[in-house]
Amino acid sequence: MPSAAKQAATSSIEHSHHYPPADQEPAKSSLARFLWPSEFETERDRLILGNGASELIDLVIRMAPRGTWRPGPFYTQYKEYERSARNNGFELLPFAGNDRANVACLVNPCNPTGDYLELDELKAWIASNVLPGGYAIIDESMQPWHSEQFREHSLTSQREYVEALYREQGISVFVMHSWTKLWCCTGLRLGSVVCPTAEHMRAIKKIQVPWSVNTVALAFLNAVVDDTAYLRDTWELTPLWRKETVDRLQSLFPDWVFHGRDFLSWIWIDTRDESVAQRAVELARAAGVPVRSGGPGYNLPTFIRVAVRHPAKVDVLVEALQKLR
Ligand SMILES: Cc1ncc(COP(=O)(O)O)c(C=O)c1O
Asked: Is the CB of 111 under 6 A from ligand 1?
């Protein structure tokens, strides 16, 4: 967890006998400045914070036009969108079909598969998968790992495109972020969504439970956006540590298949054997360096998802997995 922001969060307990600000300020403007360093004043009215992205996923899907729902083009993706669509009575379409949907949700980069679409591919996917009047929800929670230039590659930078799509086809594009990953604060609950227009933002606010983002989380966010050293380390170290981990595991297990873009903070691995994957999960957990099974949730039991971590932790993992050989 970034330390200055952790300190700000801890100090904010002192003010927690008050309600948090209902307008989420100044944290919301600080996040807007982080997303759009020069245009934040014109963009911030499209932004709203939530109690984790999970709250906002649920709110946007509740607001969405009813009918069909479809996931992104990858064989699996983070399941919260599907769960929310099912709970709200949508007809679920498969990822591989050609039918446009009333609501289409794409996780980019895709957790867990590690696939990533560049902006032109993303726009082409929206064009051929969303019905006029529909919603496209693009989850960019893992996109800021891309590089220092992440903003230029993000859909958040595409205001004119988003406006034109809404004006010409009534398609509403939402860009969802969970901030609990990049800034290691899952317990604090922090997410945001960039709406196509300020009216969409106000419509979400209308159905959002008041004060859903608490004082501590707002204080954390307000500070963490200024921690440039933390992000510089993230951009520098993640690809190095990732490559090192892939190389070490690949040389131990030449049959395993490693998926995902170089900049990502996790590795999606097909061990090609369900019992090997299960044993890997058990061994890693026992060694104190847990890896996630692709079985529960994704129903891909030969897969495991390994986090990119400091080389000392990888030593422990490699040592534990030696027992598989
Ligand atoms: C792609 C993606 N989006 C959203 C979330 C939800 O995050 P949270 O509710 O913690 O902000 C997650 C959590 O794993 C995720 O992987």
From this structure: yes
Question: Whose CA is closest to atom 15 on ligand 1?
Answer: 78
Q: Is 249 in the pocket of ligand 1 (CB under 6 A)?
A: no
**β-bridge mates for residue 176, sequence order:** 139, 193
Residues 6+ apart with CB under 8 A from 204: 48, 56, 59, 60, 63, 193, 195
Q: Is 178 in the pocket of ligand 1 (CB under 6 A)?
A: yes
Which CATH number covers residue 275?
3.90.1150.10
Task: Give the CATH number, domain containing residue 187.
Answer: 3.40.640.10
Q: Is 77 in the pocket of ligand 1 (CB under 6 A)?
A: no
pLDDT in tens, 3-43: 999 999 999 999 999 999 999 999 999 999 999 999 999 99
Q: Say whether pTM exceeds 0.90.
A: yes
Domain count, the chain: 2
Domain range holding 275? Answer: 228-324
